[in-house]
Design a protein that fits this description.
Radius of gyration: 21 Å
Strand content: 5-15%
Shape: globular
Distance between the termini: 17 Å
CATH architecture of the largest domain: Alpha-Beta Complex
Low-confidence stretches: none
Structural class: alpha/beta
Number of domains: 2
């Protein structure tokens, strides 16, 4: 298969070539590995190669909707038996799981062949991908810019045409943010749609949902068809869709009632490029015959931001403790990034009352969003408040890093609470992402659709939120938008074609 041909196809397109015997899985794997050799040194998306395992998998009969298609898995949450899972952390550098997670097993049963694992920030805590362990992943559209996070490695690899789709996880926007930064389609499914076992119930109290980043809508839909459904011991179940998601992606939706807003619920200001992207999307939606009006749900931004950070601090402390248990060794401050250690210390200092109040705030927002979506079929916002920002722009400043290291040496979470670190963090954390975390807390499905590019040639995502359990409408709308705007034909300028 000609090398240039490989990058032209989405996942289902490659699978059809395999089924029609125009190409073998082995040829696809070699094309993907060659592409990785060519472009990964520039973008640093893949941090663990699985060449031999991929070649062995390619020798087996191709089965499933993605039989023989190369794939990458994010190095966080999803375990691959016998392959290190470091979660972007020096502390976990030597951790090797002894079993697969259920979702990863379903990816494999769908026919996907994993060629490696992708870069992620430590424990997936940031909306950029710049771990100290592996260094920053770079955006194929502009190598000086971020691909977003925490699934930035996966997004960069898909945008760079190493693979047509890659695994991601979304706890505060971590699929949708990198999809926006890298010009991809990224869906966060409804809470409970995909399995989280066998080791976890609900990560981050149900905020985290894993799925994929893709160039095409139909690939995302077909993957969700293949992996959806509860596993044994699932904490909750969700009703199956009225039709296959892939079928939905090929059908135009009925005339929808759509609300849109650019009001940044969690503070900050929205960059003019992101406002322009929203305005462009609204114009397109109206041209497609939908009823579109400006409206926003009422959200207490400061209360929600504090609640979300409280939850993350508590879960970070738990992640550190769980990592220590898995390795059978005591966690050491110097084996973690200063910000991660400080967040963990804050979590250990939180009380049960503080966590309970945070979860109650989530419940309040969940009901407000659900009531709002009784009046509208979907809600549209910018995915982010900023275009892809420069590498390092949101890292702690030198003075902040010194303070974090000093506080870490003291080891007092109570002191961190006294100095108001949580309150100081909130504006900076949410300035770039004032929309996406809300729907992790509520569990609603949401997607980023690549409809707009700014004057610098950087992608700007449009964020669309649906009713709980209604990925069907989202896929119908996404498919309609994709047919109106063929975004997959656009190629990143930051790497060789």
């Amino acid at each position: 298969m000609a090398f240039s041909d490989y990058t032209r196809y989405d996942g289902l397109g490659l699978a059809e070539l395999v089924r029609s015997k125009q190409v073998t899985p082995g040829e696809l794997v070699e094309a993907a590995l060659t592409r990785a050799d060519q472009v990964n040194p520039a973008i640093n998306a893949i941090i663990e190669r699985m060449d031999d395992a991929a070649r062995r998998a390619a020798e087996r009969p191709a089965e499933g909707p993605f039989g023989g298609v190369p794939f990458l898995i994010k190095d966080l949450v999803q375990q691959v038996k016998g392959v290190p899972m470091r979660s972007g952390s020096r502390f976990l550098r030597d951790f090797v799981p002894d079993h697969d997670t259920e979702l990863y097993a379903r990816f494999c049963r769908a026919g996907l062949i994993t060629i490696g694992k992708t870069n992620t920030p430590e424990f997936g805590l940031t909306p950029y991908t710049e771990p100290e362990l592996f260094g920053p992943t770079r955006n194929p559209w502009n190598l000086a810019r971020t691909p977003g996070g925490s699934s930035g490695g996966s997004a960069a690899a898909v945008a760079a045409r190493i693979v047509p789709l890659a695994g991601g996880g979304d706890g505060g926007g971590s699929i949708r943010i990198p999809a926006s930064c890298c010009g991809l389609f990224g869906l966060k499914p409804s809470r409970g749609r995909v399995p989280s076992g066998p080791d976890l119930g609900e990560l981050w109290f149900g905020a985290v949902v894993d799925h994929v980043l893709t160039r095409s809508v139909r690939d995302s839909a077909a993957v969700l068809d293949a992996v959806a459904g509860p596993d044994i011991g699932a904490p909750s179940e969700i009703a199956p869709p009225p039709m296959a998601f892939l079928e939905s992606a090929g059908r135009d939706p009925r005339r929808l009632r759509i609300a849109f807003t650019s009001s940044p619920w969690l503070g900050g200001t929205v960059h003019p490029d992101c406002r322009a992207g929203l305005e462009d999307a609204v114009t397109l939606l109206r041209s497609l015959g939908h009823e579109v009006e400006e409206a926003t749900p009422v959200i207490d931004g400061p209360a929600f931001a504090k609640a979300f950070l409280t939850m993350i601090c508590c879960e970070c402390a738990t992640d550190i403790a769980a990592a220590a248990k898995a390795l059978g060794r005591r966690p050491v401050r110097t084996r973690f990034e200063p910000a991660t250690w400080a967040i963990g210390m804050l979590g250990r200092a939180m009380t049960g009352l503080e966590l309970s109040m945070a979860l109650r705030e989530f419940a309040v927002v969940r009901r407000r969003i659900a009531l709002f979506l009784e009046r509208y079929d979907v809600l549209v916002t910018p995915t982010m408040a900023l275009p892809p920002f420069p590498i390092g722009a949101l890292q702690p400043k030198p003075g902040e890093r010194v303070m974090l290291e000093w506080l870490g040496r003291i080891g007092s979470g109570r002191l961190l609470k006294t100095v108001g670190l949580l309150e100081q963090m909130a504006p900076e954390v949410f300035a770039a992402i004032p929309y996406t975390p809300v729907f992790n807390a509520t569990g609603h499905p949401a997607m980023s659709v690549p409809l707009h590019w700014n004057a610098e040639g950087l992608p700007i995502g449009t964020h669309v939120v649906g009713r709980q359990g209604d990925e069907t409408t989202l896929f119908q709308l996404a498919g309609q938008l994709e047919r109106a705007r063929r975004w997959s034909d656009r190629r990143p300028a930051g790497i060789t074609a």
